[in-house]
């Protein structure tokens, strides 16, 4: 009976951990944008401190013919993501056209500021939250330091 109870408690703990969001510095996105490695990335939420508006994104990277692409999806319903497009030079493109939806403009702005190294500006104006998975590879984060920074021990050094 106690073994069953322990299993239930661990399952409940993992469920709670998976739905919790963790506030991190936008500097964690530097590693995601600079990754020269195919990855699935992870889900994260960006919230404007000025407007209170938030969007949840899934970001990944892939290589095609020697060029690296950052792919962006936005949450349309609970854990249902739709492709926005690919990030390049401060804009989101889909099939060669600039995407100008509010969610595309928001993530393009944030990623451009990350590329420009304006982390302090971002941290003063937006909150970046993850839900317990590495922003680079998507694996579950299990130790306090990794959860606090949003990157696992391997990805933080890449």
Written account of the structure:
This protein is of the alpha+beta class. The radius of gyration is 16 Å and the shape is globular. The protein contains five helices and eight strands, in the order H-E-H-E-E-E-E-E-E-H-H-E-H. Helix content is 32%, strand content 32%. It has one domain (21-157). Strands 1-8-2-3-4-5-6-7 form an eight-stranded antiparallel beta sheet. The chain starts with a helix and ends in a 9-residue tail after the last helix.
Q: Helix and strand string, N-terminal first? A: HEHEEEEEEHHEH
What is the tally of beta strands?
A: 8
What count of helical segments does DSSP give?
5
As a percent range, the share of strand residues is: 25-35%
- Strands of the largest sheet, in order across it? 1-8-2-3-4-5-6-7
How far the N terminus sits from the C terminus, by CA atoms, comes to 45 Å
Summed up, the domain count is 1
| Unreliable runs | 1-8
Secondary-structure class: alpha+beta
Shape: globular
Average pLDDT across residues? 85
> Taking Cα atoms only, what radius of gyration do you get, to the nearest Å?
16 Å
- Provide the helix percentage: 25-40%
């Amino acid at each position: 009976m106690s073994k069953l109870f322990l299993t239930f408690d661990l399952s409940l703990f993992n469920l709670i951990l998976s739905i919790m969001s963790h506030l991190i510095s936008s500097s964690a996105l530097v590693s995601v944008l600079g990754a020269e490695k195919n990855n699935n990335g992870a889900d994260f939420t960006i919230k404007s401190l000025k407007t209170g508006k938030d969007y949840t994104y899934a970001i990944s990277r892939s290589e095609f013919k020697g060029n690296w692409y950052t792919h962006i999806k936005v949450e349309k319903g609970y854990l249902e993501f739709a492709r926005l497009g690919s990030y390049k030079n401060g804009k989101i493109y889909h099939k060669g056209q600039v995407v100008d939806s509010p969610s595309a403009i928001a993530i393009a702005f944030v990623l451009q500021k990350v590329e420009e190294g304006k982390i302090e500006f971002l941290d003063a104006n937006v909150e970046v939250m993850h839900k317990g998975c590495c922003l680079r590879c998507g694996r579950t984060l299990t130790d306090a330091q990794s959860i606090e920074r949003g990157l696992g021990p391997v990805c933080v050094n890449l």
